[in-house]
Amino acid sequence: MDFSFGPEAETFRAEARAWLTAHPAGDGGRAWERTLGADGWIGLAWQGDYGNRHADLAQQVAWGEEYARAGAPGRAGHIGENLLAPTLEAHGSQEQRSRFMPAIARGEELWCQGYSEPGAGSDLAGIRTSAARDGDGTYRITGQKIWTSLAHEADWCFVLARTEPDSRRHHGLSLLLVPMRQSGRIEVRPIRQLTGSAEFNEVWFDGAQASAEHIVGGPGNGWRVAMALLGYERGVSTLVQQIGFGLELHEVIAQAITSGAADDPVIRDRIVRQWAELKTMRWNALRTLGTADQAAPSVAKLLWGGWHQRLGELAVAVRGAAATAGPTAWSPEAPYELDETQRLLLFSRADTIYGGSDEIQRTIIAERVLGLPKEPRG
Fold it and tell me: Where are the alpha helices (DSSP H) in the chain?
């Protein structure tokens, strides 16, 4: 195994555990982001100094694992910290870094990602949202994005738009940084999911304004910048995610023992399989962490997407008929009254779709890693 935790990482882990114990997170949100930022826990992986701590790879993993073990809430600022900030460090101007990264580090500005569109969900190069430049250097953005996580809370959105009107596919695209507080020019509509929650949104841009100074990597270079940004979605976060998966599996095992479902040899076999596959995913993530393995992100996504879906199905099997009971009261205005097992089953159905569907991941592995012929496209 190439990756290991040394004494410095374990010291860092102990500091992280003590801090998390001393700072209850509550429900998270903006207040929690500011708490994290005040003590420098945002931006551990960044290269520059923006009010953040600096941590090596092992320390970053240690922090993430302790965060997950503490049961701390999902991060409202993770899109700005883990996607936009590394992109600005690699492709942004110094002015862009100076303007945006300190605010992210302080937990003061939240971001969302404007990529997917109703007619181009997995086909990112097929987007239609356009951005036309005015005489004063301002871009006006028109179009629609969908599945935009946390858009209803975000202060800014990085939007992939077509800045060259006659361009096609991956040519003529730009990545623009767009303020979300534009009355009458940006409309956000939450999308109610099976679980009753609505963290995804539809977003309409009707002449929304963005400064020419806020194009990352320059006009027409959006595809290159967008692909680099997607590469930051994996890595340390995969290992941290597996800690959360382990906690969910532990709960399923506890329920199986309490209910007697563990006496069923089929259930036992499924539990052991889930445990063994989770261990294998961790070893694979440690093996590829910090390497230039092109297949690693897609392989990891394929592994955990299917694993988490099977865990949801196992959780329902362990609960039996009780897991099928619906809410005691429901109305279109009120959220569903689901228990954790039901929420796990329903939410995990999307695991093989969001973040790049299984079909897309297999195509990436086939074409970019194995060098197989490209899939025919219309």
Answer: 7-22, 29-38, 57-69, 78-79, 85-91, 94-105, 222-230, 236-259, 265-288, 296-319, 340-348, 358-364
